[in-house]
Every structure is written in structure tokens, then in C-alpha cells.
């Protein structure tokens, strides 16, 4: 925590909120203390008197069980078998489908197969879940991603995918690809492994120019947190969520505004506001 402005996620030589400088030794001392503070266990997730805690827990278990099965079936000692196998995030699809139906969205309006939306820079993009009203209006588009291991190889890919998909969709929306409707709800949910590789500070490469101060001494978990916060800040997504997990029974949030609770609150709230579209 920054002693000047109480920024909880201060991990650099200069606090990126209040710009106060810290001695490097103090930075690492704060980092070690902060590690205990940042990894918040996910408590009860209740929205509109509906308790989704068990569904979140079930989704995490499904994620790990599917990942282990894919690794076994692939016969690949690396992580590639699980990465290309897909389906690990289906438990989270079930969670979000339940949230939508609890609000009153008909199941026939929830699309989880052939989820292609037209783009602007490319022909189309296959999203993980769509909600389309009987009138044909796009109500919501959701992308789900995960990464456990191989952080150095895949973090930039995930970042580019997240930004690219959002920019492509919103540009298509601006250019009239989805006419006569308000802006849809667009969400991005990320599951990241919590382990030594994702917790340790990552080296920055600055041969010509300095990186932004918030990336100094930031781990891959920190970088994913920063990404999720900025995706909302820059309005690329209506809401994002970052869930860390170390095994099938252990998971949590890194920041309240990008928690699963906040994500479901936003999603449910938006659907409540457009319920007339499904009458």
C-alpha cells in the first residue's frame, strides 16, 4: 500500500496514482506484504437474492478437472494439450446462463454455439456466449479466457486478443453493423493460475523507452489485473473479471471492481434493464 495515497495495488518505484517515489527496498517490502492482501478469497456471491457461490465453485472444479483430463488424453507433458483442448470454461458458461435465466431471459435467446458476430477489421469473430433478443438485437457478448502456466509466451497474446476483439466489435457497432439498438453489454472473464511463476515480478524490456510505472515489479497476475482494470477504464468492455486459482478448491479475486461478484452484478443489472426486449 502506498503510504501517501493508500493505493492498495502499488507495486512500482513510483506510485502510479499519486506519483510519489519509493526506495526500491521499500517497494519489495510492500510487495511481500501486499501479496497477502491482494489474494482475496471469493466470499458468497449473491445477486438479487440469488446465491451463485456454488456455481462459481463448480465452475472452478470443472475447469481443473477438464484441464487435467485433456492433458492426460493428449499425452503431452507440456501445457499445450490443455490449451488447445477448449471446453475448460464451460462451467462459467453454465453460471452466466443461470444468471441470465434468473433475470427472465428465455433459454432460446442464449447462444452458446456458432456465436459469430460480424466485425469491422475482419469478417466475423466467434464469441463464447451471446444473448440475442427475439427482435434480433444483440443484447450481450461474452468472451472467456484462461491461462495456467506458460505466462511469458501467452500473456501478450491474451492482451492482444482482448483488445482486438473489443475494438473490432465496437467499430462494427459504430459503423451500423447492429442497427436500431442501444450498445450491448460486452464482458471479458479471465481465469489465471496462481503459482510461483505468476506471482513473481516480471522483468521489463526498455532498450529505447521506459515502460509505464505501474508495470515496474509487476507479476503476471498484477499485469492481468492492470489489463482488466484498464479494459473497463477505456470502455473496451462493460465489465471484466479476473479470477485466480491454484487448484480445484482454491480461488479468489484480485480487486473488487474486477471480481466475479462485480461482473455478475453488472451483467444481471444490464439484463434487468432490458427485460422488455424479451416480452
What does this protein look like?
The chain is of the alpha+beta class and 279 residues long. Helix content is 41%, strand content 18%. The strands form three sheets. It has a seven-stranded mixed beta sheet with strand order 1-11-10-9-8-7-4, with helices on both faces. It has a two-stranded antiparallel ribbon with strand order 2-3. A two-stranded antiparallel sheet has the order 5-6. Helix 5 (151-174) links the parallel strand 8 (138-147) and strand 9 (185-193). The longest helix has 24 residues, at 151-174. It is globular, with a radius of gyration of 20 Å. The termini are far apart. The relative contact order is 0.15. Residues 1-37 and 80-85 have low confidence and may be disordered.
Secondary structure: number of strands:
11
Number of domains: 2
Radius of gyration: 20 Å
Q: Any low-confidence stretches, pLDDT <50, length ≥5?
A: 1-37, 80-85
What is the structural class? Answer: alpha+beta
> What distance lies between the first and last C-alpha atoms, to the nearest angstrom?
49 Å
**Most strands sheet:** 7 strands, mixed
Principal-axes geometry comes out as: globular
The secondary-structure element order is HEEEHHHEEEEEHEHHEEH
Number of helical segments?
8
Strand content: 15-25%
- Give the overall average pLDDT: 85
State the strand order across the main sheet: 1-11-10-9-8-7-4
Helix content: 40-55%
Amino acid at each position: 500500500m502506498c503510504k501517501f495515497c493508500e493505493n492498495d495495488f502499488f507495486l512500482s518505484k513510483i506510485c502510479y496514482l499519486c506519483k510519489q517515489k519509493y526506495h526500491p527496498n521499500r517497494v519489495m517490502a510492500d510487495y511481500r506484504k501486499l501479496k497477502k492482501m491482494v489474494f482475496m478469497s471469493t466470499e458468497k456471491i449473491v445477486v438479487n437474492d440469488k446465491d451463485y457461490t456454488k456455481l462459481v465453485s463448480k465452475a472452478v472444479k470443472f475447469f481443473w478437472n477438464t484441464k487435467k483430463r485433456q492433458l492426460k488424453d493428449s499425452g503431452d507433458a507440456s501445457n499445450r494439450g490443455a490449451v488447445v483442448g477448449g471446453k475448460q470454461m464451460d462451467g462459467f458458461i453454465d453460471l452466466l446462463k443461470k444468471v441470465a435465466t434468473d433475470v427472465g431471459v428465455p433459454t432460446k435467446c442464449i447462444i452458446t454455439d456458432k456465436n459469430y458476430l460480424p466485425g469491422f477489421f475482419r469478417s466475423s469473430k466467434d464469441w463464447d456466449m451471446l444473448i440475442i433478443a427475439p427482435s434480433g438485437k444483440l443484447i450481450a457478448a461474452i468472451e472467456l479466457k484462461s491461462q495456467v502456466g506458460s505466462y511469458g509466451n501467452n500473456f501478450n497474446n491474451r492482451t492482444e486478443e482482448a483488445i482486438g476483439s473489443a475494438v473490432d466489435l465496437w467499430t462494427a457497432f459504430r459503423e451500423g453493423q447492429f442497427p436500431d439498438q442501444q450498445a450491448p453489454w460486452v464482458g471479458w472473464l479471465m481465469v489465471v493460475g496462481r503459482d510461483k511463476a505468476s506471482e513473481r515480478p516480471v522483468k521489463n524490456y526498455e532498450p529505447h523507452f521506459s515502460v509505464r510505472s505501474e508495470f515496474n515489479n509487476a507479476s503476471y497476475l498484477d499485469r492481468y489485473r492492470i489489463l482488466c482494470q484498464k479494459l473497463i477504464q477505456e470502455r473496451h468492455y462493460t465489465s471484466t473479471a479476473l479470477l485466480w486459482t491454484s487448484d480445484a478448491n482454491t480461488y479468489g479475486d484480485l480487486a473488487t471492481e474486477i471480481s466475479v461478484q462485480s461482473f455478475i452484478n453488472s451483467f444481471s443489472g444490464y439484463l434487468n434493464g432490458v427485460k422488455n426486449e424479451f416480452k
